[in-house]
Fold each of these.
Amino acid sequence: MATRLKCNDTIPERDAHIIIKGDGTGCSIKSNSATTPGDMTERGCTYAGCRGVVGGPVKDAIQLSHGPIGCAFYSWGYRPHVADTDFHMKYTFVSDMDESNVVFGGEKKLLQSVIEAAAEFPDAKGVFVYNTCTAALIGDDGKDVAKMAQEEIGKPVVFFACEGFRGVSQSQGHHVGNETIFRNLVGSVEPEEDYAYSINILGDYNIKNDIKTFEPLFQALGLKIITRFTGNVSVDELKIMHKAKLNVIHCTRSATYIADMMKDKYGTPSISVTLWGIANMSKALRETAAFFGLEKEAERVIKTEVAKVQPKIDHFKKRLAGKKVIIYQGGPRAWHWPELLEELGMEVIGAATTFGHHDDYEKIYSKVGDGTLIMDNPNVPELEEILRTYKPDIFIAGNKEKYLAYKLGVPFLNGHTYETGPYAGFSGMVNFARDLDKALSAPVWKLVRDQARPSPVSTLDLEEDVA
Amino acid sequence: MTTTVIKQKRAVAINPIRACAPIGAMLATFGIHGAITINHGSQGCATYPRHQMARHFREPIEVATTSLTENTTIYGGRENLVVGLKNLYERFHPTLITVCSTCLSETIGDDIPAFIDEFLDNNPEVTIPILSVRTPSYVGTHITGFDNFLKELALKLPRKSRPNGKVNVIPGWVNPGDLREIKHILREMDIPGLVLTDYSDTLDGGLYSPKPHFPRGGNTLDELKDSANAKGTIALQKHIGGEAAKVYNKRFGTPAHILPMPIGIANTDKFIETLTLLTGKPITEEIEAERARLLDALMDTHMFTTGVKVAIFGDPDLVEGLVRLVAEMGMEPKYVLTATDSVNWSKDLMALSDELGLDMEILVKSDLYALHKKMKAHPVDLLIGHSKGKYIAEEENIPMIRLGFPVEDRYGYHRRSVVGYQGATALVDEITNAVLERKGSVISNTLLLEGNC
């Protein structure tokens, strides 16, 4: 049932976005709808979801924004979606529209920009063009320009219609990114190799090298990962992703679109997995292996690998048990992570997402206990209020919320881009537990709680001191 | 002298050094106690700058957005702004609201001042000032937004009454550490001053329990109103605050002094002299001692810095100030780069080059890729600029001095100061140590390469 926070007395429309599990009304939360203006939302835009999340990690594409400077500057190099090369982190490109381009159109400048960028970086395998509000509003036909540019440079020039005002959050940008990559690249070449035992990992962006934790596990089953969508992936790998026998979807919010399109066109089946946590990672290996009849291999890998990390996890579990957590993530992590927090003996008392859809909230609802607070698109005053009233032992959210938590004296873990990381797979679970422990047991919290101050009037006997 | 000015010819910008206008108005707004910005545009136009500032200042960066979407883009953003202002006012109770425009709201032609008037007419209980600042990304850079905000503030807030004996100082885009240094100088010279806007505490706040609703610090509205009654206004950056100083001059007849950023001996001297000129206050012993320590530091280090070649990029006034400081250190600025398209800036840099006998390439409205190409062709020993320069420094294996905005890959740089004699002394030490830490040599590697030593 809708729940009122005190800070929402003047905007009761926010009540529908906040529920408590177990009041008998079910998962009736409102989501994926327009943000209340001026409520101090944490949401970003469609461009951010497309350029920042889905397209940005592609390591050998020229990342070119079509618009004025700002979007390209802010989206450059801050999200640690690393790869084995760093071209995509080191360089950002922008058609840098100025006032005259706004008045007279920016198509010519875009065309010239693509050609110049491709000439400067001949090793790049294609150009990704991201549209912005300005270019869309003045009616630039970026798609047409991309077509012309592609003929000119002889490499894929992929145009993403991801202007910031489309949709209600960055979630729309994931959708645009999926569709555009599918239509423009997937299936554009037909290699003759044997792909009998091959999978794609969808919806993993290789934040701080997450892939290194789970890729060897799948390989140990005897499986080949053709394409990672899109962490540590090349343009050429995107072109052949239709050859995989199975799509393994990690982030279902940002990558189910392409799995569905591949199912329709190529009949590729998919499974949804969680690659964080011991139980979830084991389950992911088992389900993937079952598809290929590799059950025995899965059990062997799980047994060996879990044995390596279990003592360390047991160590941290003793230290973390009973701690209360509020988790606020972009989307699925808010339902992926309650289970692994439980594995560590912790309790989720609140879960929220920035851009989750109803299916995300149903999954959260099914995974948390009665009395848990569930929120959609929380804003700054709401976050401050729940941190004050629910008093979690630790808050898991993103970089923007980190300093709010710190100012309130609440231990914090960056779940978006990780503190140290990586957190996925079996070995990542140790990093996750260790970072949680660091966050909770740092000496600073005792210093803060003690509220010790130098006495305003000296209590020392100075003369005696000197003597 | 062979100093030349080079303007970028490429259409595509590769690794730009500049952000866009709204972030400047947001930063300036943080210098007013209890003030908040609402960005009239797509959500990203608020969220991206918030991310960027959080990575530099490591503080909560609260900015609201009107969350324009497809429908509002077609029908105009009036409803979202009017509702957004009401929601923000009722929940946050700010002392002042800045409304930033964006590419989106400017392109669809939203009449923001009219929407604000409508909001105020319909909500007579709202008596706080609401400033409208034009900040589309396609005009100027992040400094344009800051400058436009100050102009708007100077036009709307000051109220003439009795002389207050103060000096208005507009530092421009600097760090909290710089603001503290400027306030230290004023305090030391016993000059009552108003630094506008003052985000030294709001963006470098301590930990207080319970957390105050508004961060501590910042200018109060009364102080800003009273700024009309100052003895004069000193702008410490030509590209930010100069225009506002002129507005004060025009509206209230008080003198406006637009100075180079006080980095290094000569520029800081100018600032101190202007302060004594405006107030008649003498230069104190402590200020003399700070200047003497800077001279001492320059003397101690000059054998290691003379002839060291350096590339500098960043905001125009910062770069101009740094050129003077590194020249005072005997270093050779080879490439200086700014993203701002300013004819006056390149003229000033040419004049500076003539005065100091430098031989450099001045890159105007340029980007880091252009600078990198230059540095590959003719190497330098040291790079000075913000964090985005790290890719060049890493690839060329040269030391880098992090300066300007953003410094997002290190902690605490926002607490440092580069202005005043003390700021320069710290910077002289840092630069010298960076040169000394170069592997295998305590002297310039390019000098070794050229066989000049």
Amino acid sequence: MKRLVRWAGRLYPSEWRERYGAEFEALLEDANSGSGDLWDVLKGALLMRITRINFVSITAAFALAGVLCAGVWTLVSPARFVSTTVMRAAIANAPSEPETSMRLLLQSEQEVLSRRSLSEFIQRTALYPEERTKLPLD
Amino acid sequence: MSDPALLVLASLAEGEKHGYAMMEDIQRFAGLRLGPGTLYGAITRLEERGWIRAVGGDDRRQPYRITAEGKRHLEQEIATLDQIVKTASRRLRPV
């Protein structure tokens, strides 16, 4: 048990060990260390490390954690594509009534944006290769 | 009074001692055994506050001595504790 307690003493911060290490080891040699002392030394080392953390270290640790989280999120989140376009349509032999032209235009839009048309387009242009292996297009 | 820092100050009020001597002394007068981690946590804090200081030791067993500031702090704490004890005793007395 004494060897374990002495090992736990090495968990103290290095600057603390430079100042108190020798006398702390002498105390561990003198004291009849049991399992209670092992827990006590572990707790002491942890508290000493926590109380020695300065503002710069805390800021650096949080910044690093933020960068890591952002990196992981970028890797695991699916890629999204957004595109916009302006289409100009000219209808040959267009009817004279504007309402009829508008109806034809809406029909064309429905046809272009239909599931069948989009599925065909995605397969032809090989979009979303990873997603298509996991999820069906339907 | 179970605050390790106060126990260390009370032990050193008698005279300079090294870690193990403090541990034994505290066990004798308070009936409480401070673990090595708790004892040296208190010693570190007290030395940083200037309430105790290390005195030259011949070997690794470093003795410590209470400073004038440490004595003043101990006296204040004892006065507070004394007030608490007196108040509690008075309130516990049957009317």
